Amino acid sequence: MIALFSVLLALLAPQASEAAISGELNCTTYNGTSFVYTPSAVACSNAISDDSCQVLYPATDAAIGWPAAGNDAERPLACYTTATATPAAVVPDMVSAALKNCAKTCGLCCKTPAYDCPNVQFPRLNCATITQSQCMSSQWRTIIATDCPSACGFCNDGGCVDGVVDCNNDRSICQSVGMQDFVNQYCQKTCQRCSSTTPSTGTGGSCSSFIADSSTACAAWATNGFCTNTFYTAAQRRSYCATTCRLC
Ligand SMILES: *[C@@H]1O[C@H](CO)[C@@H](O)[C@H](O)[C@H]1NC(C)=O
Ligand SMILES: *[C@@H]1O[C@H](CO)[C@@H](O)[C@H](O)[C@H]1NC(C)=O
Predict the structure, then answer these.
(1) Which residues does UniProt assign to the signal peptide (predicted)?
(2) Residue nearest atom 1 in ligand 1 by C-alpha distance
(3) What pTM value is reported for the model?
(4) Residue 96's closest CA among 50, 60, 47?
């Protein structure tokens, strides 16, 4: 009986450990039973070809494949560790290399600069469930850019995006008399129709040295009111952009 039980365990154990995300849990969310990838884990493009990434970062469990929104495939190990089996410790250099080249294949898009910024404190929609089709939708894009920039890779856009994606193909529409209603509604960024926000370096205390910014995009965020808009908490400002916002 005990022998049978251990045979069963041996059969079950590898499956149980492979169909779960372990180690590096960024870009995942707990769905009640498992950690699964968020839509923004795989929303970006790889910097090199997808084929090359799949060779460099082979799927840990061929049956499930690579990270996808909502699945719980173990991340390819080389995306975050030098170890060859789980449990494996996170090796920051491996994560940096994966982020640079193959963020999508590794399910790490949410940590790339365009996706790694705070959302407003009280977004009008649930930022965690925004899908790729919402990111492309003219109905949604401007709301998402304001409330949930991290969900669609709008972190460097300062809250100003085009409602439709191809405005830039023909910039003459910005001047076309018959197109003004259209561009005001759909080509805000390309035609510079976003309501301008005064760039701000924030107010601050009386100190003269500040904690370093942890994000490289603070200048762009400040333009969008990150340092002054009450949508963001003081804690968010301090943890991302203490220097830019001049917080002691
Ligand atoms: C997410 O990544 C950061 C480094 O960017 C790391 O410090 C942190 O431990 C990771 N969090 C999880 C839950 O894996
Ligand atoms: C959570 O995700 C796992 C893996 O994809 C799935 O099997 C399970 O049904 C999901 N649970 C819920 C409550 O959605």
Answers:
(1) 1-19
(2) 26
(3) 0.69
(4) 47
